[in-house]
Each structure stands twice: as structure tokens, then as C-alpha cells.
Design a protein that fits this description.
With about 130 residues, the protein is mostly helical. The chain has a single domain, classed as Globins (Globin-like, Orthogonal Bundle). About 75% of the residues lie in helices and about 0% in strands. The chain is built from six helices and no strands. Helix 1 packs across helix 2. The longest helix has 25 residues. The termini are far apart.
Length: about 130
């Protein structure tokens, strides 16, 4: 078995994102949500690689708004997304990180995803009252 290393560059971020979303797409709970919303997976994976590269290294080309994107997804799914969905997502994220990498950036990846998931769900929930 190969020795795991930390997430060092865009190539590593791309491996993480592609491996993780490969699992998400097949997941019996998350897959139907993601597969019904995302029509161009290649473009979406590139966008997510941009996003996480920016998160991990504080440099990159992501310029989107994840709050607005998740509010739209919540609307498109008739506001059926729950905190449990975010929990399933986080469990897969942690599992994929631990399978592929180890190190300080892995800790950052887990920490940011955990904080972000809480914030995104709260923003979606507040958006529902509008």
C-alpha cells in the first residue's frame, strides 16, 4: 500500500473531488439529489476543484457563491434537504479524505467542511422563510 501524503496541490484536490463525488453519485441517499440537479458533471467537478483549492490554499480561481447555489438546490428539491443529508455528505467526505491523504490540509478539509455544512444548512433554512 502506498504511503499517504498531505493534499499539496490542485492535482491532489482534483483527485479528492473526483473520488468523493464518484461516491456521492452512487450513494443511495445523496446520489438521487445530486444526479437530478447536476447536468454537466465534468464542469461541476472542475468548479468544485476550484472551490476546494481556494479553501485549502487560500488561492485559486473560485468566484462563485455557495450559499446562493445551495439555496437554489433546496428550492429545486422542494425544500426537502435536511441536516441528515449534510451529515451523510460529511461522513463520505471524511471517509474519502482518510482513504487518500493524511496531514494538516486533511484536518483543514474536515474542519472547513464541517463548519461550512452547518452554515449552509442554516442559510438554506433561513431562505425557506422568505
Amino acid at each position: 500500500m502506498a504511503t499517504k501524503t498531505d493534499i499539496k496541490d490542485r492535482k491532489d484536490v482534483s483527485l479528492l473531488v473526483n473520488t468523493f463525488y464518484g461516491k456521492v453519485r452512487k450513494d443511495k441517499i445523496l446520489g438521487p439529489i445530486f444526479n437530478s440537479i447536476i447536468k454537466d458533471w465534468d464542469a461541476h467537478l472542475e468548479l468544485l476543484t476550484d472551490f476546494w483549492e481556494t479553501q485549502f490554499f487560500r488561492k485559486g480561481k473560485y468566484l462563485g457563491n455557495p450559499v446562493t447555489a445551495h439555496e437554489k438546490v433546496d428550492d429545486m428539491t422542494n425544500r426537502t434537504i435536511t441536516p441528515e443529508h449534510f451529515g451523510f455528505w460529511l461522513n463520505l467526505w471524511f471517509e474519502t479524505l482518510d482513504e487518500l491523504f493524511e496531514g494538516d490540509t486533511v484536518y483543514i478539509a474536515k474542519n472547513r467542511a464541517q463548519k461550512m455544512s452547518t452554515m449552509l444548512f442554516m442559510q438554506m433554512y433561513q431562505h425557506r422563510s422568505k
